[in-house]
Amino acid sequence: MIKQRTWYLWCVAVVIVALAGCQTIPKDALKLKPESLQKRALQTRMYEGVAEVDILSASAGVMQDLGFNIDESETKLGLIVGSKERDATEAGQVAAAIVIALLGGGAMAIDKNQKLRLSLVVRPASADDKQRHLVRVTFQRIVWNTQNRITRVEGLEQPEIYQEFFDRLSKAIFLEGHKI
């Protein structure tokens, strides 16, 4: 009787766990949001008449000119990832921390360091066209506070950042393509 009851409880537990793991996928889960196309347009440019290796070389140079260290590079895949560290201290947070400390609230953690990451991918515009390449770049920011905890991870979407990067890249590709 005890073995049968134990076996029965195990079966019920397995069924409950199996049913708890079943979830339906929302209808719009794989549908892109309307702003996705705008973001992609902001992050992508097409270059014609330049070899992929020249685009990657020019891109690495621009990244280094902007102060990024190359963390990863896989030229066969057309990928370069770089990062740079900067101070993330904001005057408003410091002022708030001082006020809280004066009111007896103790030490408040404030943003201290940030890492900016740049990911760049180069790929042919189409499978049969080796003279036109799409370059997509994304910028991310990771912020740590004074307690060494991550407080923010965010994509940077300011058009000025992307415009400056692609302006520099266009000049570098021109110089690279003409071997200047």
- The figure for the number of domains is 1
CATH 2nd-level architecture: 2-Layer Sandwich
Q: Tell me roughly what share of residues is in helical segments.
A: 40-55%
CATH class: Alpha Beta
Overall geometric form:
flat
User: Residue-averaged pLDDT, rounded?
Assistant: 83
| Oligomer category | single chain
- Here the CATH topology equals TATA-Binding Protein
Which structural class fits the helix and strand makeup?
alpha+beta
Runs with pLDDT <50, length 5+? none
With helices defined by DSSP (H or I, 4 residues minimum), what is the helix count? Answer: 5
Termini distance? 88 Å
Number of strands: 6
Q: Can you write the helix and strand succession as a string?
A: HHEHEEHEEEH
- What gyration radius follows from the Cα positions, in whole Å? 25 Å
Mind describing the biggest β-sheet?
6 strands, antiparallel
Determine the CATH superfamily.
Answer: Kinase associated domain 1, KA1
Strand content: 25-35%
Write the layout of secondary structure elements.
Layout: H1 2-21, H2 34-43, E1 44-48, H3 52-65, E2 69-74, E3 79-87, H4 91-102, E4 111-126, E5 129-145, E6 150-156, H5 159-177
Antiparallel strand pairs: 1-5, 2-3, 3-4, 4-5, 5-6
Helix pairs in contact: 3-5
Structure description:
By secondary structure, this protein is α+β, with helices and mostly antiparallel strands. Helix content is 42%, strand content 33%. It contains 5 helices and 6 strands. Strand 4 and strand 5 form a beta hairpin. Helix 3 (52-65) packs across helix 5.
